[in-house]
Amino acid sequence: MADFTNDFWNYYVSILTLLSVIGCGVFLYFLSRHKIKPGASPDTTGHVWDGNLQEYNNPLPRWWMMLFYITIFFSIVYLLLYPGLGRSTGALGWSSTQQHVSELDKAAKEYGPIYAKYAAMSLEDITKDPAGLAIGQRLFLNNCAQCHGSDGRGAKGFPNLADQDWLWGSSPEAIKISVLEGRQGVMPPMGAALGSPEAIENVAHYVLSLSGSTHEAAKAAAGKPLFTACAACHGAEGKGNIAMGAPNLADKVWLVSGTAAGITNTINEGRNGVMPGWKEFLGEEKSHIVSAYVLSLSKQK
Ligand code: HEC
Ligand code: HEC
Q: Using CA atoms, how far apart are residues 92 and 228, in angstroms rounded to an integer?
């Protein structure tokens, strides 16, 4: 324990601890010397309840007293063996850090070969390996489900990973980059560029028309020329661009919202979708297996 800012606290804690242990012993000793003389009227504490219910001041039974002596003995042995007295490291030299490190080592020895086996396989091959997918599913449930859902079907702003629609590309390589490095889909607020609220609403109806969703034709027609402001990212036909994670607006799959009001809101506010990178946290090998699991999700019918 090197956390004390100066020696004073080291002694302060050690002395207080020792005094309490010794104090308990002394207290017990005096209690056990207290005997009742045979035939004498019992000693009472003077407390009386319910008219005649008296509290006797009898010593504890011997077995009970012994239990207390054992705990004192235990605490002294413990303080000698383990860190507990101020800065003392204890005779065994145990530390929680070193226990953690040795558990990690043990896990690495036990599971390392399993991860190494999958690391050498391609994502497609792992999708055909039930044991590998089971590991991938557990990794997914522990690390990804809070955003993408336990079935990978996503939520508003968090993409569905179990469909054929990809923001950043469907190839195994693209999926693995998404997982390892993370992704950030940035759409700036476009309201000012379009000008009036009518113009924004018109563009929103044009976006709806791209996927054949319910829209007002006149507004969509008025919005069409304004879509040039969006084409740089979403493409001239609104089919999206995986290089910058711009969603395809011409299908009926919506990341955020597929209503005129929701689209108007996206145009006004902009969007910033952040997928954290997992290289640091999960490491290369686990990221590889969970990527394969994601790939398998989109392949199931
Ligand atoms: C700088 C590139 C860029 C421009 C310009 C841009 N967008 Fe986007 N847009 C994006 C990105 C990236 C996303 C995804 C945001 C995310 O990942 O959360 C997005 C998301 C959207 C969405 C949500 C799609 C869904 O599935 O819910 C809509 C709607 C949209 N944009 C419409 C527009 C319109 C209309 C314009 C033009 C007025 C426009 N965008 C201009 C990059 C752009
Ligand atoms: C904090 C929430 C969060 C967590 C946790 C998270 N993701 Fe994501 N993920 C996102 C968001 C948001 C996006 C979309 C980014 C964007 O808007 O472009 C995304 C995108 C993705 C994509 C790209 C999807 C596409 O359409 O191209 C993949 C693949 C993915 N995540 C897999 C995972 C995996 C595997 C895990 C667990 C190891 C994980 N995610 C954990 C939020 C999260």
A: 73
